[in-house]
Amino acid sequence: MTTNTDRRLNQKRQAREILFSCLCSFVILLFCTRSSPLYPFNNWDDVNSYFSMGKGMMNGMVPYRDLFDQKGILLYFLYGLCYLVSHTSFIGAFVLEIAAAALHLWAVLKISLLLAGRAQKAGRTADHDVPGDSGRMICYFLLPLYGACVYSTRCMWYGGSAEELMLPLFAWGLWLLFRVLDPGEAEIGRCIFIAGLLAGCVLHIKFNSLGFFFGWMAAVFFCRLRRDGILKSLLHCLIFLGGMGAATLPWLLYFLFHHAVRDWFRVTIWLNLFVYSEKLPLAERIYTVAKTLYTHFLDNPAAFVPAALGLLWFLLSRRMRASEKIAVVSTGAFLTLGIFIGGVSLPYYPLPLTVYALFAIPAAAGVTDVLTGLPGVLSGNPGVLRRKETEGSACNAPDKEDVAVRSGRERVIRCLPAAVVIILLSAAAIARFSMNMSYLGTAEADVWQFRFRDDIEASGIEDPTLLNMNCFDAGLYCLADIVPSCYFFQTQTIHLDDVYLSQRENLRRGDTDFVLAREWYPNGIDEHYVEIDSATADYFGEEEHFYLFMRKDPAGQ
Predict the structure, then answer these.
(1) Which residue segment(s) compose the domain that 460 sits in?
(2) Is 73 exposed, middle or buried (0-12, 13-18, 19+ CB in 10 A)?
């Protein structure tokens, strides 16, 4: 029976986990994302595109009907909230990234504590699957190092990607997976429904990562089939779909209200499935997936080496249930297929797979448990070295809360040297692997977008309009606080002739006050526009040239 004291201790433990996750997230992302106030501007075209779509949404425009981009509506809504925080910076996106990272690390910590409790032979508390002092300390110590390794990988890219925002969904999906497959779990239906909600969120951010939850539900169905029977297992599938439906219903109503359901489906489903993906034979597609995974593994060793080692330990450990091993492999396999089977791969695509690096944390607890037991084994008395911790964990003192506070202070003092080592290792990982560190210290005067913004402001045009040609959203929509006014407000990589035809028509009519072009002068630009500035930017060792044009008659006379 749970007492008031136990309840207070549990609440304090939860608060400690959340606070620690938030602190780690803030410090890590302060350096690992260009949305951070330490950087002048997040100059990644993808996140600027999300920001512009969200801005249009907050100004009454309907994504897919009035503005074109092919990511999910939930992603644009979140970036719309970022726009409400700040119209001309990514400080709102920085807050969003911290919130996502904190939720991600909190789930990782909970899973690590669960598995570390199983990994340790001795030193557990009286509760089942809860580690003792050493196991908890290892999980807390390694959490910031895990975060530093994941968020400093090359696939983190500039920061703010859809993949980054989905990491907490996958982490909590794994947590729910362990709960559902626990024979003693009493709230299976609730857990499955929440997993369906998470799957629905993934669907409306970037649906190619939905393979994780397909593997999730498939594993739950087959692993619980013998215990629950076919009818109850089918009911679990319906509950899962109900969760996805609950996450979809608000957006369905939104598009119904704006008469844009057809546009929503055409852009997010049809074009992504049948236009954006590459047309490849099956054998070549499988080879491409394998080659892509190998390349990404070499490009992101800080996360994928721990992931490989941690998963190997998890799959070989006799203390983990067979159903859990099957389920984890299922989620990873289907997630990988969903991301890469289309034949298109960009550097930030494998970021969702870094979540499996969390298994390195309980693996470290298990290995440490074995190593600390070796001296006792050699002396013929394995219990000697752990007796003190075991006794402390089984303490039945009258005031358990007071004992916990005193022992907590003692642990903090004992663990300070190890904490310093972890901080140094985390800092070293960020300095060594984060591609954004080279951007640190860059002045606004050295970023061409700020100069172009000043050109636009100096024109004196109120509520200026802009068109990006031969480039994605380069950041002027954000910095100059311009709401997109053209359907194809930027050039897309998707193979649609409509993009070029529509933009040529915009140019022919002189629809916008300004035009930003990359690499070349658009044909016919001289009819309505004059060049007012140009810039050269370095992009991974290659020079890119940008030109800013202004309409000859800004007032439209």
Answers:
(1) 444-551
(2) buried
